[in-house]
From TrEMBL:
The keyword Calcium applies. The keyword 4Fe-4S does not apply. One of its GO terms (molecular function) is phospholipid binding. It comes from the Eukaryota. This is Arf-GAP domain-containing protein. PANTHER family: ADP-RIBOSYLATION FACTOR GTPASE-ACTIVATING PROTEIN AGD11-RELATED, ADP-RIBOSYLATION FACTOR GTPASE-ACTIVATING PROTEIN AGD12. Keywords: Calcium, GTPase activation, Metal-binding, Zinc, Zinc-finger. CDD domains: ArfGap, C2_ArfGAP. Residues 198-313 form the C2 domain. Gene3D superfamilies: Arf GTPase activating protein, C2 domain. Residues 21-136 form the Arf-GAP domain.
Length: 372
């Protein structure tokens, strides 16, 4: 399982503090963490920081579809890591410790997917495992109230031999069993702390989403806005919402600025069939609904196709491989160049916001396709 990067079994030391990344590298080197926690694919390059597991790129697409309230996915090579995110991974102890909780009670008729599993098999298992908590010990499931934390249940059960001997053996490592459980409880509280109504709403959204296959990951850097529309007295408080299909992410709000600079990186999975990237800019209001400051759509098909074609090209330096022309039929403010930069396929996009009196938005896109 490969992605277009310089990863060679190593955590990229340019991300985050070198001391923290060294600890993450040590954790990744443990045998159980050298395969995907969900399907067993070798050499995982992604991680769920709030669950505490290392996963492959195919499983990472399913994790992203669950929403960040269930699983927050980061790349070991493409994303910047904070010390807190590394601490969360280390506290859990990796795949074996997390799976000792999440896979403790798998029924005999449930088969864990393998590296060659179909998307449907992979998606069903991951949703059962993390979203529905079907393999967690019943007394540890959180389904009714945010006040009922898994940490408190772990503490109660710890005093009365709440975990089986096999689970204890999986969790024992360099850290003590008690501190490992504390770390797992901390991660699972982040993942599962929500009310029953939230769970029902999630299931409703999953039903609407259906079984969607993902073909890649789109990394979007929201760079800046220029001459945005005034929505308050003399200025605006803009933020950007990005949507692909049923997935939505947004930037932070920048107060009182018509020329905001975000330089904020976000990521979405690319589904098949492939809808456009929808971009919306809003003005944040405190006492009323947020006001629209324009919108646009970006056709990501050329970028994704180029990424698939050049993923193993072995070309370094910068090379233009395509161009999306600005016309009256699209929202481009200028021609958009697709280029190969040290093996990575990127596209700079300058958008003229639509359905608004003025405004320009600059984005930088990068596509990481899934590889068979």
């Amino acid at each position: 399982m490969e992605v277009a990067s310089s990863y060679n079994g190593e955590v990229d030391g340019r991300n985050g503090d070198s001391g923290s990344m060294s600890r993450l590298k040590v954790l990744l080197a443990e045998p159980d963490n050298q395969v995907c926690a969900d399907c067993g694919s070798p050499d995982p390059k992604w991680a769920s920081t709030n669950i505490g597991v290392f996963i492959c790129i195919r499983c990472s697409g399913v994790h992203r579809s669950l929403g960040v309230h269930v699983s927050k996915v980061l790349s070991l090579t493409l994303d910047d890591w904070t010390d807190a995110q590394v601490d969360a991974m280390v506290d859990v102890g990796g795949n074996a410790s997390a799976n000792a909780i999440y896979e403790a009670f798998i029924a005999k008729d449930i088969q864990k997917p393998g590296p060659e599993a179909s998307f449907e098999e992979r998606s069903n298992f991951i949703r059962q495992k993390y979203e529905l908590q079907e393999f967690v010990k019943p007394s540890l499931r959180i389904v009714s109230s945010s006040s009922l934390s898994l940490g408190s249940l772990l503490q109660q059960n710890s005093s009365s031999n709440s975990l089986d001997h096999d689970m204890e053996q999986k969790s024992i490592g360099k850290m003590s069993h008690a501190s490992r459980l504390s770390g797992i409880g901390h991660a699972l509280r982040k993942s599962w702390r929500r009310r029953e109504s939230d769970t029902k709403e999630t299931k409703k959204n999953l039903s609407a989403l259906g079984m969607v296959e993902f073909v890649g990951l789109l990394k979007i850097k929201v760079v800046k806005g220029t001459n945005l529309a005034v929505r308050d007295m003399i200025s605006s408080d803009p933020y950007v919402i990005l949507t692909i299909g049923h997935q939505t992410v947004k930037t932070r709000v920048i107060k009182s600025n018509l020329n905001p600079i975000w330089n904020e990186e976000l990521m979405l999975s690319v589904p098949n069939p492939m809808p456009p990237l929808k971009v919306q800019v809003f003005d944040k209001d405190t006492f009323s609904s947020d006001d629209s400051m324009g919108e646009a759509e970006v056709d990501i098909q050329p970028l994704v196709s180029a990424a698939k074609a050049y993923i193993n090209a072995g070309v370094y330096g910068t090379m233009q491989i395509g161009k999306w022309l600005a016309t009256s039929d699209n929202a481009l403010a200028s021609d958009s160049i697709i280029k190969l930069v040290d093996g990575q396929v990127k596209q700079d996009v300058t958008l003229k916001l639509q359905n608004v009196e003025c405004g320009i938005l600059d984005l930088e896109l990068e596509c990481v396709p899934l590889i068979q």
